[in-house]
Amino acid sequence: MFESLKVDDKSGVPVWVQIRNHMIFLIRSGVLRPGDTLPTVRSLAVDLGVNYNTIHKVYQDLETDGLINSGRGRRSTIADIDREALNLPESPIDAVVEELARVARESGITKRDVLTRVEEALADLE
């Protein structure tokens, strides 16, 4: 589930924010569902090639936001989230579009450039 996450040290976005945003995307899109068990902090840090404290910070932040449940000596799980209270998108496509807009804003890419890239990527659909 985290295989698609590629940490970009040159993006200007802190690594922990990139990982947190990816995890939020997985939750919002329904890939991660309430009760799903997350990898341990140590194993995810090794898999992503980042510092243990980076993942620990991500998990703490997600727990503070009520998105995961965790505790000392037990595995972290996705919290029972009220999709409406969190204003989560209805479909995975909506989640992807919202994530695209967020990443574009953070990267400073223009709307025109984003639309051009999307049109090129979707050219095969027609």
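The record above closes out task 2.4. Task 2.5 opens with a second protein, given below.
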Amino acid sequence: MNFYNKIILSGISILFFTMLISGCDDTITSDELDKRVIPDSNIDYYTHIQPIFSVKCASSFCHDDGTRAGGLSLTSYGNATADLSIVFPGDPSVSKLVWAIEGTGGTQPMPPPGAAPPLTENQIKGIKTWIAEGAKPGANKP
């Protein structure tokens, strides 16, 4: 193989890998997340809830594993459900997470104004339904 063929092959390889990597971007923006509709029942944690936590709660360096604002990380199912006072399976009315996202129970609304875009009514309802349905992980674990 001559020198020019090696350069062409190298260029094609670099182009291929660049396209492959950019095509595998599975991140979602807050605007894209807000357009998703969470169903009225059968809420799956990994499909419906974790994306909300990842984009609106953990991505602004508040409730990630390093910062743990208020002692809470929402980066995984285990973290989100570890404390029954935060997420009380079956009863959203006594779950501090619901109080925080609604700004009730003497708490300030979460996320705080300016820290991240607020949750939509559909997202709040989805979280409450997920908790009411038992705060189970669901079947769609990545």
